[in-house]
Amino acid sequence: MKIKEIKNGSIYFNVKKNRPERVISNNFSKSRVVTEYHNKNQTAVPARHLRLADDIEVENYLDKKGSSFIASFFRKLTGRK
Which residue from 41, 53, 67, 70 puts its CA 20 to 30 A from 78's CA? Predict the structure, then answer.
């Protein structure tokens, strides 16, 4: 994935770590972005290790966050319970 395509706050799948992560800064460098995994492990990740997370991966990420505002907003937005 190209760094220009990556959006802050979006959830991407880290293919190297085999888990969804949220991008918190795509201005780190020309080839890396900063991600976090459920508000911990803020690390720089090469953009080539990320791909856009699919619906199931996003839902799994939000479920692990518990009943946070983002999870409840996403559920309301998609009509899921």
Answer: 41
